[in-house]
Amino acid sequence: MSRIIAGAAGGTTLVSVPGSLTRPTTDRVKEALFSRLDAFEVIADARVLDLYAGSGSLGVESASRGAQSVDLVEFDGKASEVCQRNADLVNTVAGRKVVSVHRSKVESFLERTQESVRWDLVFLDPPYPLDEPALAGVLAKLLPHLAEGAVVVVERSSRSPEPSWPDGMERFAERKYGETKLWFAEPGVAGVDDADDAAK
Asked: What pTM, to 2 d.p., does this model score?
């Protein structure tokens, strides 16, 4: 059973999506991910976007840790209902509406979002059946909505190839945790590599 690890709502048990349609991020991977994000200093007061949100676990964790606002985007009906329940848990603790849930296909959501809207931290944990060209298309649609210095985290199977980054988005780190692999990317920076990546 997943929980919020740290922050204002730390220790809160999250509602899970029934069945096997979603692939929740394990607490072990989530803890390692947010440890890195804390080191990057991108969570506090961030505008966060959680695409293919599933239960909304990553987005609500961000909210608990001090994000300014969080948008959860999930198309599946049952999953979006779970997102709303988990959002309500965190919003109650925060005393305001930090987390908003959008039942939508990811591509449609990005296409209809106003050009002026920017996010500082974006999570993408697409379903395994989503092929690489489709993921590349989503990343291209996301790029205009990234704030300066934004961090994009893509979570995939460790057997998946590295995503095809659009021009103007560069990977700067990657990590593998068992069957899960995380790629970290940012806009507008070329040739930057995480120093400890070189030691891999």
From this structure: 0.91
